[in-house]
Amino acid sequence: MTYLLVAVGAAGGAPVRYLFDRWVQQRFLPVFPWGTFTVNLVGSLLLGALAAAAAHDNLSRAGLALLGAGFCGGLTTFSSFGWETHRLLEDGADWVATVNVTATTVLCLAAAGVSWAVTSAVLG
Fold first, then answer.
1. Which of 6, 81, 7, 51 is nearest to 89 (CA)?
2. What is the domain extent for residue 50?
3. How many alpha carbons fall within 13 Å on the CB side of residue 79?
4. What are phi and psi of 117, to 5 degrees?
5. What is the pLDDT of residues 60-100, one digit of tens each?
6. 3-state secondary structure of 88
7. Higher pLDDT, 27 or 121
8. Distance CA 123, CA 11 (A)
């Protein structure tokens, strides 16, 4: 049953990722992969809050499977992050690739941690 919840959540997260990525990328300079960076940041922020809610018994295991593993898993994308970083390196944009890797890693971890802390404080 859990795998169905994950599948349903992912079926929602993946199209949101695609549409949001295209929307963001059209509004910023195309050199940096702003769309993938943004969906990964938003997904990390959301997953941190969901995990904290589950830890405080405000979100069921089924809800965490649907929204966390499913929706956030479909929303975020390590494969696009890896491919875009590789493409930047092949195009000679080493500095942009380095910023992409560093900013994505640091800010996504920070987003998850901050959203966990804020959600935990709110839920007591």
1. 81
2. 2-123
3. 5
4. -65, -45
5. 999 999 999 999 999 999 999 999 999 999 999 999 999 99
6. helix
7. 121
8. 29
Q: How far is CA 73 from the centre of its chain?
A: 7
pLDDT at 124 over 90: no
The tokens of 102 are what?
Answer: 């560093």
Unique residue bearing structure tokens 């839920």: 123
Rounded to an integer, what distance in angstroms lies between the CA atom of residue 2 and that of residue 63? 10
- Residues 6-63 pLDDT 10s: 999 999 999 999 999 899 988 887 789 999 999 999 999 999 999 999 999 999 999 9
Output b/e per residue, 86-122; b: 16+ Cβ within 10 A.
eebeeeebeebbeebeeebeeebeebbeebbeebbee
Calpha distance 4→16 (Å, rounded):
19
CA–CA separation, 53 vs 117, rounded Å? 10
